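Re: weekly structure request thread

Next one in the queue (84 aa):
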Amino acid sequence: MRLIGVHEDDDGNGRYLLKRDGEGSRTTFLFYDEAGMVLRLVGRDEAEALFAGGELERCSLPAGEVFFPDEMKRLESAFEEGRL
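Done, posted below.
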């Protein structure tokens, strides 16, 4: 799982876009908003729109370097279940 987009507000709350490559050519994207407690899967087009609209800045980091272990479990569960 990689962190591919990020934005932090003035209060230090982040909005993140995560990417996970699955079987074959399947790629899944997950949007996570700390302040609004939003955690949802998004499609490739919506993921690109977040960058095009300036809502997120591109980056590329292993998610494990950014999130705490309990957050990683929650994010991994969202990817696995395909829902919250």
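Strands lie at 2-8, 14-21, 27-33, 38-42, 57-62. The chain has a mean pLDDT of 89.
Next request, please.
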